[in-house]
Design brief:
Elements (H helix, E strand, L loop, with lengths): L6 H19 L5 H18 L26 E18 L5 E14 L2 E10 L5 E6 L13 E5 L12 E5 L37
Antiparallel strand pairs: 1-2, 1-6, 2-3, 3-4, 4-5
């Protein structure tokens, strides 16, 4: 991937996002209030930061992201099943070249009475990072057609993961940057991570 135009503002962006997610990993008496605070802080970041995916001429009038109402039943803990033989593949990113990903394991979980699994990936490169994208039955209708992300630890998006368990809180499923402006190149969710049922939680399309 190409070097950032300003590595210092990008570093600040990532640190700020990481601090927002650190607050989500902390215990909370009221998860709904915690979620509202996160969404408000994220909107303010998108309106004010030089690295915002919102085009600069649109930021002051941008109304904020559209979200489904918070629903605690969309927060579950998944079980990680590591893969013995890891497969690495490439995703073409238009202006940013090729992104190499390695399939690390499966996350098995149940939500709203439905059992499912999602593959979890490692973004290759210096340091690497955990990546968990998905698409579902709302993709292209109520939500972004290319799918949404739950984890991108390179960018600081980390809801809580251990050696065998991972927090899947779909209330925080979010759009990749390319959903806001076509100048961004984003890896979209691989076909294997399309869930057959709707995830009516997290970020929507306006």
């Amino acid at each position: 991937m190409s070097s950032p135009a300003n590595p210092f503002t990008l570093a600040n962006w990532r640190r700020t996002v990481a601090s927002h997610y650190a607050r989500l990993r902390a215990p909370a008496e009221d998860r709904r209030v915690q979620c509202d605070a996160f969404r408000h802080a994220r909107d303010e970041l998108f309106r004010s930061h030089p690295e915002s995916p919102i085009a600069q001429d649109r930021r002051s009038a941008w109304p904020g992201a559209a979200w489904y109402a918070y629903d605690a039943s969309w927060r579950v803990v998944g079980t990680i099943e590591p893969i013995g033989t890891r497969a690495t593949f490439e995703i073409a990113l238009a202006a940013d070249g090729v992104l190499r990903c390695t399939r690390m394991g499966l996350v098995r979980f149940a939500v709203k009475g439905k059992g499912a699994s999602l593959a979890v990936y490692w973004l290759e490169g210096y340091g690497g990072g955990l990546w968990l994208p998905f698409a579902d039955a709302t993709s292209g209708a109520g939500t972004y057609g290319g799918g949404r992300y739950l984890y991108d630890t390179i960018k600081g998006a980390d809801l809580g993961v251990g050696e065998r368990e991972i927090v899947l809180d779909f209330n925080y499923a979010y759009n990749p940057s390319c959903a806001y402006d076509e100048r961004w190149s984003c890896p979209l969710s691989p076909a294997e991570n399309r869930l057959p049922f709707p995830i009516e939680a997290g970020e929507r399309i306006a």
